[in-house]
Protein backbone atom coordinates (compact mmCIF):
# COMPACT_ATOMS: atom_id res chain seq x y z
CA UNK A 1 0.00 0.00 0.00
CA UNK A 2 1.47 3.37 -1.02
CA UNK A 3 0.91 6.03 1.63
CA UNK A 4 4.02 8.19 1.32
CA UNK A 5 1.91 11.31 0.90
CA UNK A 6 0.39 11.12 4.38
CA UNK A 7 2.86 8.99 6.34
CA UNK A 8 5.88 10.69 7.89
CA UNK A 9 9.13 8.99 6.85
CA UNK A 10 10.75 6.40 9.09
CA UNK A 11 7.68 5.51 11.14
CA UNK A 12 7.14 1.96 12.39
CA UNK A 13 3.41 1.52 12.87
CA UNK A 14 2.06 -0.64 15.67
CA UNK A 15 -1.14 -2.45 14.69
CA UNK A 16 -4.22 -3.21 16.72
CA UNK A 17 -5.15 -6.76 17.68
CA UNK A 18 -6.53 -8.99 14.91
CA UNK A 19 -9.26 -9.94 17.41
CA UNK A 20 -10.75 -6.51 16.74
CA UNK A 21 -12.15 -7.97 13.49
CA UNK A 22 -14.55 -10.01 15.66
CA UNK A 23 -15.71 -6.86 17.47
CA UNK A 24 -16.36 -5.08 14.19
CA UNK A 25 -18.19 -8.09 12.70
CA UNK A 26 -20.43 -8.34 15.79
CA UNK A 27 -21.37 -4.67 15.40
CA UNK A 28 -21.86 -5.14 11.66
CA UNK A 29 -24.13 -8.15 12.18
CA UNK A 30 -26.34 -6.42 14.74
CA UNK A 31 -26.74 -3.23 12.72
CA UNK A 32 -27.36 -4.97 9.41
CA UNK A 33 -29.77 -7.51 10.87
CA UNK A 34 -31.95 -4.65 12.13
CA UNK A 35 -31.73 -2.62 8.91
CA UNK A 36 -32.44 -5.55 6.57
CA UNK A 37 -35.33 -6.70 8.79
CA UNK A 38 -36.86 -3.22 8.65
CA UNK A 39 -36.38 -3.03 4.89
CA UNK A 40 -38.17 -6.40 4.52
CA UNK A 41 -41.39 -4.98 6.01
CA UNK A 42 -42.68 -3.71 2.62
CA UNK A 43 -41.97 -7.15 1.14
CA UNK A 44 -44.03 -8.80 3.87
CA UNK A 45 -46.87 -6.30 3.41
CA UNK A 46 -46.89 -6.83 -0.37
CA UNK A 47 -46.73 -10.62 -0.02
CA UNK A 48 -49.54 -10.54 2.55
CA UNK A 49 -51.76 -8.53 0.19
CA UNK A 50 -51.98 -5.43 2.41
CA UNK A 51 -49.99 -3.22 0.04
CA UNK A 52 -51.32 -4.13 -3.41
CA UNK A 53 -50.30 -0.72 -4.74
CA UNK A 54 -46.58 -1.26 -3.98
CA UNK A 55 -44.58 -2.97 -6.78
CA UNK A 56 -43.30 -6.41 -5.83
CA UNK A 57 -40.01 -5.88 -7.66
CA UNK A 58 -39.29 -2.80 -5.54
CA UNK A 59 -40.21 -4.62 -2.32
CA UNK A 60 -37.65 -7.30 -3.24
CA UNK A 61 -35.00 -4.90 -4.59
CA UNK A 62 -34.76 -2.65 -1.52
CA UNK A 63 -33.65 -5.32 0.99
CA UNK A 64 -31.60 -7.12 -1.69
CA UNK A 65 -29.55 -4.00 -2.45
CA UNK A 66 -29.01 -3.37 1.25
CA UNK A 67 -27.91 -6.97 1.73
CA UNK A 68 -25.36 -6.68 -1.11
CA UNK A 69 -23.99 -3.44 0.40
CA UNK A 70 -23.83 -5.07 3.82
CA UNK A 71 -21.87 -8.02 2.44
CA UNK A 72 -19.47 -5.62 0.70
CA UNK A 73 -18.86 -3.88 4.04
CA UNK A 74 -18.32 -7.26 5.69
CA UNK A 75 -15.58 -8.08 3.19
CA UNK A 76 -13.86 -4.75 3.95
CA UNK A 77 -13.80 -5.14 7.76
CA UNK A 78 -10.58 -7.23 8.04
CA UNK A 79 -8.72 -4.83 5.75
CA UNK A 80 -10.03 -1.80 7.67
CA UNK A 81 -8.77 -3.29 10.93
CA UNK A 82 -5.34 -3.96 9.42
CA UNK A 83 -5.19 -0.30 8.34
CA UNK A 84 -5.49 0.99 11.92
CA UNK A 85 -2.16 1.79 13.47
CA UNK A 86 -0.38 4.06 15.91
CA UNK A 87 3.15 5.22 16.57
CA UNK A 88 4.65 6.92 19.60
CA UNK A 89 7.16 9.62 18.78
CA UNK A 90 9.14 11.89 21.07
CA UNK A 91 6.66 14.79 21.03
CA UNK A 92 3.43 13.31 19.70
CA UNK A 93 1.33 10.25 18.98
CA UNK A 94 0.39 9.33 15.42
CA UNK A 95 -2.84 7.48 14.65
CA UNK A 96 -3.72 6.22 11.20
CA UNK A 97 -6.72 4.53 9.67
CA UNK A 98 -8.55 4.11 6.42
CA UNK A 99 -8.31 2.15 3.20
CA UNK A 100 -9.86 4.34 0.54
CA UNK A 101 -9.81 7.57 2.52
CA UNK A 102 -6.66 7.38 4.58
CA UNK A 103 -6.14 9.59 7.59
CA UNK A 104 -3.11 10.20 9.77
CA UNK A 105 -3.78 12.13 12.97
CA UNK A 106 -0.99 13.76 14.98
CA UNK A 107 -1.76 14.36 18.66
CA UNK A 108 0.91 16.41 20.49
CA UNK A 109 1.44 15.17 24.05
CA UNK A 110 1.22 18.74 25.35
CA UNK A 111 -2.34 19.09 23.98
CA UNK A 112 -3.71 15.98 25.70
CA UNK A 113 -6.08 16.79 28.52
CA UNK A 114 -6.91 13.24 29.55
CA UNK A 115 -6.73 9.70 28.26
CA UNK A 116 -9.75 7.42 28.54
CA UNK A 117 -10.07 3.66 28.14
CA UNK A 118 -13.36 1.95 27.40
CA UNK A 119 -14.48 -1.54 26.47
CA UNK A 120 -17.85 -2.84 25.35
CA UNK A 121 -19.06 -6.35 26.16
CA UNK A 122 -17.57 -7.97 23.05
CA UNK A 123 -14.27 -6.14 23.52
CA UNK A 124 -14.11 -7.18 27.19
CA UNK A 125 -14.80 -10.79 26.25
CA UNK A 126 -11.87 -10.72 23.84
CA UNK A 127 -9.55 -8.85 26.23
CA UNK A 128 -9.54 -5.66 24.13
CA UNK A 129 -10.17 -1.99 24.82
CA UNK A 130 -10.46 1.37 23.05
CA UNK A 131 -8.15 4.20 24.04
CA UNK A 132 -9.58 7.72 23.58
CA UNK A 133 -7.48 10.86 23.70
CA UNK A 134 -9.17 14.09 24.71
CA UNK A 135 -7.39 17.25 23.66
CA UNK A 136 -7.97 20.98 23.90
CA UNK A 137 -9.68 20.82 20.50
CA UNK A 138 -13.28 19.65 20.57
CA UNK A 139 -12.94 18.46 16.97
CA UNK A 140 -10.20 15.94 17.71
CA UNK A 141 -11.57 12.42 17.63
CA UNK A 142 -8.42 10.55 18.49
CA UNK A 143 -9.01 6.95 19.42
CA UNK A 144 -7.25 3.66 19.01
CA UNK A 145 -9.73 0.76 19.04
CA UNK A 146 -8.84 -2.91 19.37
CA UNK A 147 -5.91 -2.63 21.73
CA UNK A 148 -5.11 -5.58 23.99
CA UNK A 149 -6.11 -4.53 27.52
CA UNK A 150 -2.54 -4.64 28.84
CA UNK A 151 -1.27 -2.49 25.94
CA UNK A 152 -4.14 -0.05 26.47
CA UNK A 153 -3.29 0.32 30.15
CA UNK A 154 0.42 0.78 29.35
CA UNK A 155 -0.33 3.32 26.65
CA UNK A 156 -2.74 5.23 28.91
CA UNK A 157 -0.10 5.58 31.63
CA UNK A 158 2.64 6.46 29.15
CA UNK A 159 0.55 9.08 27.36
CA UNK A 160 -0.72 10.60 30.60
CA UNK A 161 2.85 10.88 31.92
CA UNK A 162 4.11 12.42 28.68
CA UNK A 163 1.18 14.84 28.59
CA UNK A 164 1.83 15.98 32.16
CA UNK A 165 5.54 16.41 31.45
CA UNK A 166 4.79 18.57 28.37
CA UNK A 167 2.25 20.67 30.29
CA UNK A 168 4.72 21.22 33.14
CA UNK A 169 7.29 22.37 30.61
CA UNK A 170 5.03 25.08 29.16
What does this structure look like?
- By secondary structure, the chain is α+β, with helices and mostly antiparallel strands.
- It folds into two domains: 20-80; 85-168, PH-domain like, CATH 2.30.29.
- Helices cover 48% and strands 24% of the residues.
- It has five helices and seven strands.
- It has helices at 20-39, 41-47, 56-83, 121-126, 149-168, and strands spanning 14-15, 85-88, 92-97, 103-108, 112-118, 128-135, 142-148.
- A four-stranded antiparallel sheet has the order 1-2-3-4. The chain has a three-stranded antiparallel sheet with strand order 5-6-7, sandwiched between helices.
- A hairpin with a 6-residue loop joins strand 6 and strand 7.
- Helix 1 (20-39) runs antiparallel to helix 3 and helix 2 (41-47) packs antiparallel against helix 3 (56-83).
- The chain is elongated.
- The chain starts with 13 loop residues before the first strand and ends with a helix.
- It comes from Arthrobacter ginsengisoli.
- The chain crosses the membrane at residues 25-50, 56-76.
- Residues 82-159 form the YdbS-like PH domain.
Strand content: 15-25%
CATH superfamily of the largest domain: Pleckstrin-homology domain (PH domain)/Phosphotyrosine-binding domain (PTB)
Q: Regarding CATH, which class of the largest domain?
A: Mainly Beta
Class from secondary-structure proportions: alpha+beta
Morphology call: elongated
Describe the strand arrangement of the main beta sheet, using strand numbers. 1-2-3-4
CATH-defined topology of the largest domain = PH-domain like
Alpha plus pi helix count: 5
Rounded mean pLDDT is 90
Series of secondary-structure elements, N-terminal to C-terminal: EHHHEEEEHEEH
Helix content: 40-55%
Low-confidence stretches: none
- In the CATH classification, which architecture of the largest domain applies? Roll
The number of E-state strands comes to 7
Radius of gyration: 21 Å
Amino acid sequence: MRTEAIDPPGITWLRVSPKYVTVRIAGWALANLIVVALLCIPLLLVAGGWWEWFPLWLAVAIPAVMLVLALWRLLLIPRQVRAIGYAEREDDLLIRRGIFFQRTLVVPYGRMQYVDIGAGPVERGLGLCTLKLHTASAGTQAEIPGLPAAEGARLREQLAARGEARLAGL
